[in-house]
Amino acid sequence: MTLYELVEPGLVTCAEPRYRIAEIRAADPLGADALLAAVPAMNRDADVAALTVALRALVPELDRVDEWSVVDALAAMRDLGLLLGSLKRHGTEPLAAVPEALPVLQELGRRTDMVPRDTVHHYTTWNPLGRRRRTYTGAEMEAHLQDAVRMVFPALVAALDTCGRLARLEPYDPGFALALDRTAQHVQSMVDSIDFTVSHVTPEFFARTLRPYFEEIDIDGRAHLGPAAAQVPLWLVDLTLWQCDRSDPRYDAFLAESVPYSLPSWRAFHAAHRGGVSAVGKLAAALSWETAHRVPPRLTASALSLARVLRILKTFRARHLGIARKAYRDDLRLYEAGSGGAPVALLRTVLDLTRDNETLVRRALERPRTPAA
Question: How far apart are CA 303 and CA 363, in angstroms?
Fold first, then answer.
């Protein structure tokens, strides 16, 4: 049994409507199944006229939106979003072509407490499976990329729960190492996801075929990014492990742009923890007070667990950087920046920061101690 299969059932009973994945996937408030099945053919033919007609046909009246639950509103944004990205890919600003969609997108954003367009969660986690799957191209590689992102959502939710507990503990607490070990188990799903992507999606397909569908669109004079892997907030795990007090201005600036694309509860998590003391900061302070020849066993366990989860994060980021370098190499890329708005160089920066924090923890544990009297 995979970690995904262990964690996902718990989301079904959660009061948070954005975690009711099966319900959102099943929802079709716009009656869009048949029309969206034709989108890959429209995109193949670059049929802007047909895409415009399709978007206009799906835009609901505002009074209908007022009657929808959060689940229905999320599903509607998902389905409208497929057409937004398709039109922009072919050089058309969607709201210039279909201006009546603007108030609907704004209302859907208000009702769901999210940005007024689709995000990576709409495109992957909340996307139906099987014949109802919404895709830009209909290609198998696109479905694989969606699945690679989809598989991390339940584990990430669980990781944020353990990180929340971790933030309330000190390194001498027995629960500190336990929370880190559980976080490591959840974060491993990110490594599994990146390995799956490497095995099933070529850099050429992403760079040349799929990446153009993730461009930003103009909504009432403001640019809004399309679905991007950067919106899967592994940075919320970073936040409590090291980032809240050991960051870099470039990473901070990227997070300021990325946070609005998160779920409401995740934005609240960021707001609650961004001014705190990280696990690395707590551990470094605790170890600095230990001058005896032997570090207490609980502190040693905390340090080893923290180094382990940082090593997993480092592994993920090294592999992610490798993929990004291939997809954005000079002879292949169509864009300078990633779909999340950041250059590939930022991935190198975050990898270096992760590695530096792992090294700090490891060296602090290994440093010579004053012999006991």
Answer: 10
- The pLDDT value recorded for residue 290 is 73
Q: Which domain holds residue 153?
A: 147-366
Rounded CA gap, 12 and 208, in Å?
37
Half-sphere exposure of 12 (CA within 13 A, CB side): 9
- CA 352 centroid distance within chain: 20
| pLDDT tens sequence across 263-273 | 999 999 999 99
Write down the pLDDT at residue 343: 75
**2 occurs within a structural domain:** no
The alpha carbon dihedral of 219, 33, 29, 154 has a sign of negative
One domain, residues 200 and 109: no
- Number of separate domains in the chain: 2
As a whole number, the mean pLDDT across the chain is: 89
CATH number of the domain encompassing residue 238: 1.20.58.480
How far apart are the C-alpha atoms of 118 and 74, rounded to whole Å? 9
**Rounded average pLDDT over 174-191:** 95
Q: Report the relative pairing of strands 222-224 and 217-219 from DSSP bridges.
A: antiparallel
For residue 291, is pLDDT > 70? no
φ/ψ of 233, rounded to 5, equals -80, 70
Asked if residue 184 and residue 63 are part of one domain, the reply reads no
pLDDT of residue 32: 98
DSSP three-state, residue 307: helix
Token pair listed for 136: 């830009």
Amino acid letter for position 292: A
118: which residues sit within 8 A by CB, 6+ positions away? 77, 78, 80, 81, 82, 84, 85, 226, 227
Residue 20 lies in a domain: yes
